[in-house]
Amino acid sequence: MESSLLLILIIALLAVAVIGIGVGLVISSRGKSTPPVVEAPPVDTTPPVEAPEAEAPVAEAPTAPTLERPEGRESRLVRLRQRLAGSQGGLGRGLLALLSRDRLDEDTWESIEDTLLTADVGVAPTQELVEKLRTRLRVEGAPEDARGVLREELLNLVGPDMDRALRVSGADGRPGVVLVVGVNGAGKTTTVGKISRILVADDRKVVLGAADTFRAAAVEQLATWGERVGVDVVRGPEGTDPASVAFEAVKEGVDTGADTVIVDTAGRLQNKAGLMDELGKVKRVIEKQAPVTEVLLVLDATTGQNGLIQARVFSEVVDVTGIVLTKLDGSAKGGIVVQVQRELGVPVKLVGLGEGADDLAPFDAGAFVDALLG
Ligand SMILES: Nc1nc2c(ncn2[C@@H]2O[C@H](COP(=O)(O)OP(=O)(O)OP(=O)(O)O)[C@@H](O)[C@H]2O)c(=O)[nH]1
After folding, report:
1. Ligand 1 centroid vs 218 CA: distance in angstroms?
2. How many whole angstroms separate alpha carbon 149 and alpha carbon 143?
3. Is the C-beta atom of 356 inside 6 A of ligand 1?
4. Rounded to the nearest 5°, which phi and psi values hold at 91?
5. Residue from 355, 360, 363 whose mutation best tests the ligand 1 pocket (most atoms within 8 A of CB)
């Protein structure tokens, strides 16, 4: 009996030992510092997302190593006044010679009229001027100061009181927007470049929009103007919708805190409806960002009546607020200033006086008449 009890006890102890070893093994295997099971990341079947590429730059960074300094205001104006007098002086000298004759007979008055008409003063303004001079001479007698009388009357004709200030500033922290329109070859792109230089010389931050997208060369030309003075030029590929380039240019101007955005446009004049659509859209799209503060119509002074016809069409499709008369250096027909202002009821604000980069001057009625009188 005792031995069977002993046997049971041994068996029981063995059983406990076996169970204990088993449990110990389990516990030890759990407690072992096996690396935690890292769940395999779910396999992403979507294509890898690449880091966003920098957006295709619309604005060209200036690449010119050294920037030009545009000519300062004072020296530019002195130089250009001399050039204006050189090109236009003939009209005044001719008139003065005629007015200073001892006898002012009908032939002389006719010659005075012809001189004015040849200088593109236009029929109605010419008749007006001659009538005034005749009356004054009748009432006041032969003038001792023929030059003074002529100066006064020419000045009245040119409009000394017209507001010729360029609206290049915007409101509410937004840039001023200058839209430049006109037919191809009138000097639009050149004028946009020249205006940007004047503004840069005044320490203003400028952005240019190359919205003349129908001629790749015009875009390149504008880019070069910008590079020379460190001004950003916003452009699109050839044939891009001009309105989208104008929009991007003004957007860049707003985003970068520019003072002025100048937008060059294509002046395709095949038909009035097309032009109206194009310029109308450009203006509408710009105005989603900032109001257009100035619409400048560029006219080639050497084109006479043709230029006037174009001017009329443009003024019918877009609200022109100022005229730029280019190539006045190459023409003795400064009288076109009078005609075009009458025709459009809009002042000449700037005159182009050469192909040089700084050959653009604000139009000053007094200085202009002095230049006419030589
Ligand atoms: N002499 C002189 N030439 C000028 C003046 N303004 C522009 N030009 C020249 O006129 C030519 C035409 O000028 P652009 O600026 O290319 O004319 P555009 O109207 O932009 O013509 P597109 O680019 O074809 O639309 C260029 O050779 C200019 O150098 C000026 O005031 N005087």
Report:
1. 10
2. 7
3. no
4. -60, -55
5. 355
Closest atom, ligand 1, to C-alpha of 353:
31
The single-letter code of the amino acid at 236 is G
Rg (CA), the chain: 39
The answer, yes or no, to whether ipTM is higher than 0.85 is yes
- Protein residue with its CA nearest to atom 6 in ligand 1: 187
The answer on pLDDT for 34 being more than 60 is no
Q: Which of 327, 368, 321 minimizes the C-alpha distance to 158?
A: 368
* 152 CA from centroid of ligand 1 (Å): 33
**Domain ranges across the chain:** 73-158, 176-320
Q: Is 17 annotated as a binding residue?
A: no
Which tens digit of pLDDT belongs to each residue from 79-130? 888 888 887 777 888 888 898 887 888 999 999 999 999 989 999 999 999 9
Task: Identify the residue whose C-alpha is closest to ligand 1 atom 5.
Answer: 327
Band of pLDDT at residue 169, cut at 50, 70 and 90: very high
Residue 358 reports pLDDT greater than 60 = yes
- 130-146 pLDDT, tens digit each: 999 999 888 877 767 78
- Topology at the third CATH level for domain 176-320: Rossmann fold (3.40.50)
The CATH topology of domain 73-158 is: Four Helix Bundle (Hemerythrin (Met), subunit A) (1.20.120)
Q: Which residues pair with 180 in a beta bridge?
A: 264, 296
- In this structure, the number of other CB atoms found within 10 A of the CB of residue 8 comes to 10
Dist CA 358 CA 73 (whole Å): 10
Q: Is 212 in the pocket of ligand 1 (CB under 6 A)?
A: yes
187 annotated as belonging to a binding site for a ligand: yes
What lies within 8 Å, CB to CB, of 242 at 6+ separation is 211, 212, 213, 214, 265, 266, 278, 281, 282
Spatial contact of 331 and 118, defined as CB atoms under 8 Å apart: no
Maximum Cα–Cα distance across the chain: 172
In whole angstroms, what is the distance from residue 169 CA to residue 260 CA?
6
Sequence-separated (6 or more) residues with CB below 8 Å from residue 19: none
For 175, how many CA atoms within 13 A lie in the half-sphere containing its CB?
Answer: 27
- CB of residue 114 inside a 6 A radius of ligand 1: no
- Altogether, the residues listed in the chain come to a count of 374
Query: Ligand 1 in contact with 186 (CB < 6 A)?
Result: yes
